[in-house]
């Protein structure tokens, strides 16, 4: 949080940058003149506030939570204090001062190193080379966001339009929109038009299969020269199918009262306006010669609950949501070696929803139904259970109910529907998985992969190489490299392996620099999969009343929490 108004203060959590014990900071950043002592935190009680006497016994220092090495060092220190006096007030003050001093100097050293390694040079208008300041990590909230900034500033060569949304991000099919959703107990009810339409209209009068164009295949049909789209459309019979959500279309049966004042929460249109727009579309379609078939949401619910066999039929439909790339992200990170050498997608995908080819011909993401093998010691594909746990199961049903004994489920219960990267699926197939059905594929024609021979390519190779070089140099020469010949041979072999040329003069043990490089290597990828619905704190002064009321009236803000009568 930044506080301006003459103060210019920024409040940051150092743990978001340096995830280590405070006692490790002096050694990490080579602060040789500093050392964190020990304090009996469990002794810090009201009755001991003014204690003066011998040093408290071992258990007050939390020895049970120390490592074996830490405990040995602590016991040696505690033994040396046998003949000394422990003044609680004095020790508390000195300990707090020492803690703050260590953290301050450690953070400043971290900032100094980060700005040094990210500084660049460029020529000014006079042709003179000048050094530009590096990136200040404390301009960001976490080390991950700082790493992303380094990548954008130093290594992202092309500019792309960036989408930050929890909705499905894709180049839409022609005349396609996201479908409205009705919540029932079955997954297929999320696309109620498909479920309703399938019961009576899956075949024509002669019994031949009837192809209906809708949002889950080619996209919703758009009437030429108009803005009207149809939930379903059969070109052969020129039939328009519409599913009317009661709120969206101003249903007169569900909203009979105050129709001129009751408004849709998003569009702000009244129920009368929505209903008239729906009827106007219906009359237009009929005038244009279309057969018009519709059903209201409340009618759909009634049919589901009352009509014999309807609920079973809808439940049996194999209908799933559209592919969401975020579903393929796991709750973990990637090794820097994967970031450097792996093949990544670029640009916009081709979206395939029918007429699928062999999976090996695609590169990108695929939403599929797979059947895992029954005997595989290390399952390949992850699955998020219905209670939100990430597992690698061989049976969906057993994973959901946490069944621990031998699986006896049928194949239809074992099959898993999910979104995975195509290389994952290819590996799974090689291990015995069967792909039962393809629902949707994002195929990327543009890709980027690091070339080991030329040292070019790769989306993240430049970033990884920068910090890998720093980490390797800060590690010093290996112990077996004693002679000049051995050291030079080490540099040559490392260049052959990683395509990174180490600087002989820079190869010196530097714990702080090595730690920084390691943090930046391991804190980069996870930011790409971060949730977007994180809470945000906004601090406003009494002179910023206009901003406060703008915030209150912002329809995109779902909730505001008033912390107290003077703070929101």
UniProtKB/TrEMBL annotation:
Catalytic activity field: DNA(n) + a 2'-deoxyribonucleoside 5'-triphosphate = DNA(n+1) + diphosphate
Family: Belongs to the DNA polymerase type-B family.
Entries under Gene3D superfamilies matching the protein: Helix hairpin bin, Ribonuclease H-like superfamily/Ribonuclease H, VSR Endonuclease
Biological-process GO terms, alphabetical: DNA replication
Enzyme Commission number, as recorded: 2.7.7.7
Pfam families tied to this protein: DNA_pol_B_2 (PF03175)
Keyword Ribonucleoprotein attached: no
Species of the source: Mytilus edulis
Annotated InterPro entries: DNA-dir_DNA_pol_B_mt/vir (IPR004868), DNA/RNA_pol_sf (IPR043502), RNaseH-like_sf (IPR012337), RNaseH_sf (IPR036397)
GO molecular function: DNA binding; DNA-directed DNA polymerase activity; nucleotide binding
Keyword Transferase appears in the UniProt entry: yes
Domain of life: Eukaryota
Protein name, UniProt field: DNA-directed DNA polymerase
Record PANTHER family: DNA POLYMERASE (PTHR33568), DNA-DIRECTED DNA POLYMERASE (PTHR33568:SF3)
This protein's UniProt keywords: DNA replication, DNA-binding, DNA-directed DNA polymerase, Nucleotidyltransferase, Transferase
Residues in DNA-directed DNA polymerase family B mitochondria/virus domain copies: 8-161
């Amino acid at each position: 949080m930044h506080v301006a108004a003459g103060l210019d203060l920024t409040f940051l959590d150092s743990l978001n940058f340096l995830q280590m014990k405070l006692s490790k900071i002096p050694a990490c950043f080579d602060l040789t003149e500093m050392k964190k002592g020990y304090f009996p935190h469990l002794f810090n009680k009201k009755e001991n506030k003014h204690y003066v006497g011998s040093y408290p016994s071992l258990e007050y220092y939390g020895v049970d939570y120390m490592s074996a090495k830490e405990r040995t060092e602590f016991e040696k220190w505690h033994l040396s204090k046998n003949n000394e006096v422990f003044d609680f007030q004095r020790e508390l003050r000195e300990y707090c001062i020492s803690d703050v001093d260590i953290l301050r100097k450690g953070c400043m050293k971290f900032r100094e190193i980060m700005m040094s390694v990210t500084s660049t040079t460029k020529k000014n208008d006079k042709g003179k080379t000048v050094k530009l300041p590096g990136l200040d990590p404390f301009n960001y909230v976490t080390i991950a966001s700082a790493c992303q900034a380094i990548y954008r500033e130093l290594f992202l060569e092309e500019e792309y339009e960036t989408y930050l949304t929890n909705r499905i991000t894709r180049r839409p099919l022609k005349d396609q929109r996201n479908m409205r959703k009705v919540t029932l107990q079955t997954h297929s009810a999320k696309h109620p038009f498909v479920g309703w339409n399938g019961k009576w209209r899956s075949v024509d009068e002669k019994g031949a299969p009837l192809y209906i164009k809708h949002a889950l295949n080619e996209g919703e049909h758009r009437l030429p020269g108009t803005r009207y789209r149809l939930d379903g459309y059969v070109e052969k019979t020129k039939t328009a199918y519409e599913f009317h959500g009661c709120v969206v279309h101003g249903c007169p049966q569900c909203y009979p009262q105050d129709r001129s004042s009751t408004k849709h929460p998003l569009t702000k249109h009244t129920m009368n306006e929505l209903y008239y727009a729906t009827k106007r579309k219906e009359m237009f379609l009929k005038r244009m010669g279309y057969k018009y078939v519709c059903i209201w949401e409340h009618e759909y619910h009634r049919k589901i609950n009352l009509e014999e066999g309807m609920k079973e039929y809808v439940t049996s439909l194999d209908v799933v949501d559209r592919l969401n790339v975020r579903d393929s992200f796991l709750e973990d990170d990637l090794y820097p070696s994967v970031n450097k050498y792996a093949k990544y997608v670029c640009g916009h995908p081709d979206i395939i929803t029918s007429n699928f080819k062999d999976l090996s011909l695609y590169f990108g993401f695929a939403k599929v139904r797979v059947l895992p093998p029954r005997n595989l010691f290390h399952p390949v594909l992850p699955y998020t259970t219905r209670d939100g746990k990430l597992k690698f199961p061989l049976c969906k049903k057993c994973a959901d109910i946490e069944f621990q004994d031998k699986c006896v489920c049928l194949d239809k219960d074992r099959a898993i529907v999910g979104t995975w990267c195509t290389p994952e699926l290819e590996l799974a197939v090689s291990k015995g998985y069967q792909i039962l059905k393809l629902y949707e594929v994002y195929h990327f024609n543009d890709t980027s992969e690091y070339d080991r021979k030329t040292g070019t390519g790769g989306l993240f190779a430049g970033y990884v190489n920068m910090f890998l070089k720093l980490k390797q140099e800060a590690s010093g020469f290996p112990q077996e490299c004693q002679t000049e010949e051995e050291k030079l041979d080490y540099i040559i072999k490392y260049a052959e392996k990683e395509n990174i040329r180490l600087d002989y003069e820079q190869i010196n043990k530097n714990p702080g620099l090595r730690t920084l490089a390691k943090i930046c290597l391991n804190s980069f990828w996870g930011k790409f999969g971060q949730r977007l619905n994180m809470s945000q704190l906004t601090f406003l002064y009494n002179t910023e009343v206009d901003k406060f009321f703008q915030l209150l009236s912002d329809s995109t803000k779902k909730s505001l929490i008033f912390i107290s009568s003077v703070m929101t």
